[in-house]
Amino acid sequence: MPELTNVLLLAADALIYFAALAGLLRLRDRIGLGPFFCALGVLHFLETYLASIFYVALPSGIVTSPGSTILFAGKLMLLLILYIREDAVVVRQPIYGLLFGNVLVFVLGFVLRYHALAPLQGDRAADFVFLDEMGGLMVWGTVILFVDCVMIILLYERTRVWFGDRVFPRLLTASALVLTFDQVAFFSGLSVLTGAGLPVLIGGWIAKMGAVALYSVLGAIYLVYFDRPLGSPAAPRLRDVFDTLTYRERYENLLARTGCDALTGTLDGHALETYGRRAVDGAAATQRPLSLLLIDLDRLHAVNEGFGRAAGDRLLKLTAREIMSAARLSDFTYRFGGEEFVVIADGLSASEALALAERIRHAVASASAADPAGPLTVSIGVASVPVDGASYDALFAAAAGRLERAKASGRNKVTGPLPASA
To answer: Quick count: other Cβ atoms within 10 Å of Cβ 151?
Structure first.
């Protein structure tokens, strides 16, 4: 049966594609990422060519293209894996390169039509209509790829709330949602340039969902068994795109330079003294907002006395995890003293910092409710530039004073430059 044969061939295409490129990615420590990026670039032309004119029939009347179903879906999955193992600063490199190269193809194709062409043997001639279609589709496809990558990174991080550290359901959910959007977006351009009909949209989506399932299995196997983990980033709350995503790498670089707290994994007091002052000075000099959150664990001493030091340490780690999960990826979290944490949130206004503090307060209480030594609450003092001054010392003093008022008024409260609900 030809349709069933096509299904098996598409599965074979996916296995070959993923195994080859994942192999290059696995060797990045030895040969660098250049070969992986170059392979993606070369295959991008074939992907667009197949998506424009090469379609196969599947069972139940489904029509799809290997270019869209296998090559594009696989490329997006591999870029997500690249983000998981490296960072967004690495992911954006091939995307920007593809976009620049595709625009250049379009521009050069326009100039080439004005050459005086030498006659060729037979009826062979340059097909500028096809070249225009390919150039337009490649540019459009890469613009969509840019959006797809931002979305799939954000969705993958957001699914941590639902699935924890289980890789397969996170890959499956994020890629299924993004490739549904991608199918509609790419079809709009394909329909305009090539006249593709509705069966291409529907059949392509169904086939992509099958590819999503297969690539999610392959991606999970690769991440769990064939590549070493580099740690789990906190769920980001982003306004910018790749520039903000790259804060993860900057955060890890800062950890390497200044050290981190061995128990909680946050930055330590030395880093706070060094980086905190620099961040406040920079915000004051450029007149941009910055907020400092001083967080204290309520009655941790009683937990240590009643349940033991191990229980207290467990709640300290839980609190640090919830703080970093609630904060933006660009925020820096420090352990200050035995049971206090500091968050430096560059670019966050006073009202936004109060909202962040409330999220942290609720998150800690909710996460610790099931702990044998819980529930645990936190009190938080918030201070902001320029409302509370333009120096680190002034900001810290204001936050410390508000923290004391929060504790004196019954604990489990947020106090800041603006009113906040308890």
So the answer is: 16
Residue 78: band (very low, low, confident or very high) from pLDDT cuts 50, 70, 90: very high
Report in angstroms the alpha-carbon separations of 289 from 273, 283, 292, 295. Answer: 19, 6, 10, 20
Q: What ranges make up the beta strands (E) of 328-421?
A: 332-336, 340-346, 378-385, 414-415
The residue ranges of DSSP E strands in 52-114, in sequence order, are 56-58, 62-64
For 270-284, what is each residue's pLDDT tens digit? 888 888 888 888 888
The per-residue pLDDT for 238 is 43
Q: Which of 328, 318, 170 is nearest to 248 (CA)?
A: 328
CA distances from 293 to 146, 219, 237, 282, 304 (A): 34, 38, 17, 18, 24
Q: Which domains does the chain have, with CATH numbers?
A: 2-226 (no CATH), 242-415 (3.30.70.270)
CB 332 within 8 A of CB 254: yes
Name which residue leads in pLDDT, 165 or 379: 379
> Residue 234: CB partners within 8 Å, gap ≥ 6?
157, 324, 325, 327, 329
Contacts of 377 (CB under 8 A, 6+ apart): 297, 298, 299, 361, 364, 365, 411, 412
How much is the pLDDT for 161? Answer: 85
User: Rounded to whole angstroms, how far apart are CA atoms 92 and 391?
Assistant: 35
**Pair 315, 300: CB distance under 8 Å:** yes
Q: Coil, helix or strand for 248? A: helix
Do 273 and 392 meet the contact criterion of CB atoms below 8 Å apart?
Answer: no
For residues 50 and 71, is the Cβ–Cβ distance under 8 A? yes
Q: For residue range 342-396, list pLDDT tens digits in order.
A: 999 998 999 999 999 999 999 999 998 888 887 899 999 999 998 898 889 999 9
Strands (E), 284-350: 290-297, 332-336, 340-346
